[in-house]
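Exercise 7b. Backbone tokens:
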């Protein structure tokens, strides 16, 4: 499943994030990569202990908690605090797969990476290149979203970021452990949830609304780990 979720941040919020990130210190992104990923990673990141990363990451988590679309699609159990990167001057990230198990910085906690997410702070016209290319196994999808928008996709996929040849690409990235591990089950639950919402909007008193809502929750009860 790959899903674009608009307006996690407003345009003004995304602009504020970008302005603050333009004025802070950056580190070599390879420092946080594993042995294989470090060979194809050429970007910059904020250090995990950077106060700006903690503050902006907290704001993103607040917005995610209020996003009905994110909650429907991800069914989040744990969300890793967002990290921040910058691609500039030809920076890129070659083909790689995200780690299956990730540590929470500063805490004795780990999460399983079921879903990967990127929130864009730069508008597409502000830079050339920098597409997130996701290979689902059935073909490649190229993603370059407006500032404030987010893409959510399976962490199992091979993906890359193409070289940024003009301007700068600022973004946040993070991982989610879902209550429902299997991607096909999450997709079915999302389809069912959307169908219930459409039926409720058209005919709120239809008896099928209650039956389908019960079915949704019973499936979630069966499949969820909490």
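Sequence design result:
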């Amino acid at each position: 499943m790959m899903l674009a979720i608009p307006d996690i941040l407003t345009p003004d919020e995304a602009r504020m994030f970008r302005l603050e990130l333009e004025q802070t210190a950056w580190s070599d992104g390879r420092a946080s990569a594993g042995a294989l990923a470090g060979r194809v990673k050429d970007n910059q990141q904020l250090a995990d202990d950077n106060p700006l990363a903690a503050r902006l990451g907290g704001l993103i988590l607040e917005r995610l908690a209020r996003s009905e679309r994110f909650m429907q699609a991800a069914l989040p159990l744990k969300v890793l605090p967002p990290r921040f990167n910058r691609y500039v001057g030809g920076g890129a990230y070659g083909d790689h797969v995200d780690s299956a198990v990730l540590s929470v910085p500063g805490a004795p906690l780990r999460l399983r990476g079921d879903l990967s997410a990127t929130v864009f702070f730069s508008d597409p016209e502000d830079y050339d290149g920098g597409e997130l290319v996701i290979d689902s196994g059935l073909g490649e999808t190229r993603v370059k979203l407006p500032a404030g928008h987010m893409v959510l996709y399976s962490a199992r996929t091979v993906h890359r970021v193409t070289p940024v040849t003009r301007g700068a690409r600022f973004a946040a990235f993070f991982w989610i452990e879902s209550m429902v591990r299997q991607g096909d089950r999450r997709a079915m639950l999302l389809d069912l949830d959307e169908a219930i919402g459409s039926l409720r909007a058209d005919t709120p008193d239809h008896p099928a609304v209650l039956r389908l809502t019960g079915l949704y929750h019973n499936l979630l009860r069966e499949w969820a780990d909490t």
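Instructor comment: The longest strand covers residues 164-178. The helical segments are 11-22, 35-38, 51-65, 68-74, 183-202, 207-223.
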